[in-house]
Amino acid sequence: MEQRNQEAEVEVQSRAKKAESVTNNNQPRWSNGQCVVVMPSCSTFSPSFDLSSCRAKLAQDGFQIPASDMEIPLKTALDVPSVKRYLVFNSRLFHLIMAPILYVVLWCAVFSTLHLYISVSDYWVLCLSVSLVSILLTTAIIFMLHHSNKQINVNVDVRLVQVNERMVKHKLLVGVADWVENCTGNMQLFFVYWDMSRCLKTLTETLEELDFVTPDAQNKLRSRMSHLILVSEDLPEESESGGSDVEAESDENRPLLHDVDCSTSSHQRREPTVTSSFSLAPDASLPAQVKAHRLLMTYSAAYVKLLVSKRLSGPSHHRMRLRRNHCSVSPVCLCQYIKKKVLQ
């Protein structure tokens, strides 16, 4: 009996420890860069994700996230027809399908052009030359498309900034990545554990040093982020009446991307709109810590995309990697990635 009682006590203690680890948001279990949940797309040609099931899986791992911090912003960012079309046309599966079609089109175009202006006695020489030129052009175009996927994407990565601004409170970052496996497209939504405190501290110190050493650091920052410009449409009445309120609002407390209500009535769509654009580069008047936070949020989704697809390259020296890296599964952490892309 005593042995059974001891076993029951041990079982109760183990359950209590498990419950305690869940309530503490699984802090000991996870380290920066570890993938918590992977949610595949429900359809290849109309990408969508089962967010309710995804939130349930996160809850099983101890991440209690309300719908207002996850499902609603994710639907606003990704559940848009134009974004879905972009995800399909920019996917690796579409590039794989496009490559032979592009080769045939280029071959016909080059052959018809050369055949008109160049007379060749040996027909096979002309065909071989056209084939080589078409292969080179096709390879160059596919390489450029592949290289563009390694950069931050305004249509997808920047739209996820709003999501990561909320998910980072729960020590999670979100990103979308895809690849081809067995001639099948694999588009997935990734939830990666990330404690932002160390990266925020390191990047803040770096920005403070740059402001002190090089006065033109802000100009370099703006030039590197000059392509990250968002265009929004507002009603004229709202833009005029809300102008003073926007100016009065502090830049430090303003979110990087404002929430936009996608459900507009038909009579509102017919009203004239005012187009405004703004850059994602942080303003020079902001404190270094606020700048660092905005940079981390801006590049968070792009970093997750490269992290899960293993396309991050960093220093090969093991000691240097351990000394400055805040991620155990990648050679480059988020703050190092931003330093390399924006600040160097």
From TrEMBL:
Entry annotated with the keyword Hydrolase: no
Transmembrane annotation, as ranges: 93-117, 123-145
Entry keywords, A to Z: Membrane, Transmembrane, Transmembrane helix
Pfam families assigned to the protein according to its UniProt record, in alphabetical order: DUF4481
Bias type Basic and acidic residues, positions: 1-20
Superkingdom classification of source: Eukaryota
Stretches for region Disordered: 1-26, 257-278
UniProt xrefs under InterPro entries: DUF4481
PANTHER family to which the protein is assigned, alphabetical: TRANSMEMBRANE PROTEIN 268, TRANSMEMBRANE PROTEIN C9ORF91
Name of this chain's protein: Transmembrane protein 268
Protein source organism: Oryzias melastigma
Native organism taxonomy: Eukaryota, Metazoa, Chordata, Craniata, Vertebrata
